[in-house]
What we know:
It comes from Marinobacter salarius. It holds the Pfam family PBP. By secondary structure, the chain is mainly β. The chain is built from 2 helices and 11 strands, in the order βββββββββαβαβ.
Amino acid sequence: MKIKVRGIEEGQPVPEKFAFGVYSEQDHMSFGPNRNPELVWEDAPEGTRSFVVMMFDPDVPSVADDVNQEGKTVSKDIPRVDFFHWLLVDVPATTSRIPEGEDSDGVIPKGKEPGPGPIGIRGVNNYTQFLAGNPDMAGTYAGYDGPCPPWNDEILHHYHYEVHALDVETLGLDGEFDGAAVREAMAGHVLASARVTGTYTLNPDLRKD
């Protein structure tokens, strides 16, 4: 199976139009266009009955004490964990494209609703936890919300855009399910997978302007 993420080449920076946060010289970060990129996939194996679409960042610091703190940096030596940015399940087997901006077009304070979306069923991404302490932004974030790594992180972040072909029509997930629930539910049902990885940073010392 093959996947193309329009505008993102393997190993190259994710364009700012797909980002939740963009670099700001004055404030370190400001809200970005937060549009989901166009995904196109082909050559799904025979027997495919649905797809899972996910995007996640495996480089998120496991300890957030120094994240986005003036005068501090997030050490490259801190253990890293997965942060899910996009979860779509029960995408019909007849689908092979998600248009740009179809699942997200702008930052929505307090998040988009989980459940049935324009394509498939939206799971809950990790902005739900990350923004929980912000009274203006706290809420349940579902569907796509793009990159916004700590602006003081010493490492470049990687973003894996994936499509998985499954042998079941539905994973039976509903409500506020997360990335761990998706991975558990699709275990043993994956016929094929495809991935494109982009990079992103808000650290001015790592940016290639």
